[in-house]
Every structure is written in structure tokens, then in C-alpha cells.
Specification:
Length: 179
Amino acid sequence: MRRKTLKLAESELFEYSVRYLGGRACSTEELRARLRPRAAKASDVDAVVARLKEIGYLNDARFAESFATNRAENDGFGRMRVLSDLRGRRIAPEMAEKTVSEVFADKDEAGLIDSFIERRMPSLRGETVIEDQRELGKAYRRLRRAGFSSGGSLAALKRRAARPEEIEEPPEDEEAGET
């Protein structure tokens, strides 16, 4: 049984937005989606968003940079995962691309992958040599889900594989097709 949402006037909607933003940062479009069902009038949503932007409580560029930096540095994710997550948070594609390019500009993917493995994949830490091809496949899929390129992921796994010559290279550079 779902409770009926109480419709809010513009001033109440603004106060709700400020409380919400105080607890969690979000993009403009995420906030719009959250406010629409609560607004008494659809035009109130635009007015509240404009006011929040005007006073600096809502800034997509600042949010995107903070979010991307956190996902890259604290969570250890790769470029493609951070880009995908930004798009999932309803950041404009151009802004997401620009932000991710800036955040990853001075980062070495091989170092990021090694760091990710050390932090998030305990079975592969240190000088571990992987014998089982299934384990290599599982590790490869996990690295790809974390947003790392196939070439970088394969290179890191080859350094840890008992038989690196058995690891096949990708047929072509699929990175150009990913976005």
C-alpha cells in the first residue's frame, strides 16, 4: 500500500529541496525528477530549481566534478564506469565527458588497475599467480565492470597469470566504440 504524496506549494517545495540537498548532493535533473510528483503546479519545479541555482545550492558542474573525483579516487573505478555513473545521475553527456577527461587526465590506468586489484580483489593481491582460466575470466569481467579498458585489464591479468601466453588479446580496439 503506497501513501499518497502531499502536493507542496512553491515555498514548501523550496524548503523540501534545501533539506534534501543538505543530506545528499544531486544533479539538476535528479532533483527535478524528485520534485515533480510533490509539486502542486509543474511550473513550481522550474521556479525552485532556478532559485536553487541562483543561490548556488545546485550546480551540475560542481556536482559532476565532486562525484567523478570521488568515484575515481575513493572507489577506485575506471574511466568508463565513472562516465556511466555520471550519465546515470542525469548529467549532460558533454559535461560528463569533459569532467571525466579532467579527472582522469593525469592518472595512469595501469596504476589504477593495480590499485583496484589490491583494494578490491583480495584473491589476486601481491605476487599471486593465477592458474585457473575461470578465475582469470572472472577477474577480467570484474575489471571491465569497474570501468577499465580491455587492454589494460588484460595486461594486468597477464602479469598475474601462470600462463600469460594463453590470454588472448581483444580482436580490435573496442574502446573507441564505448561511451
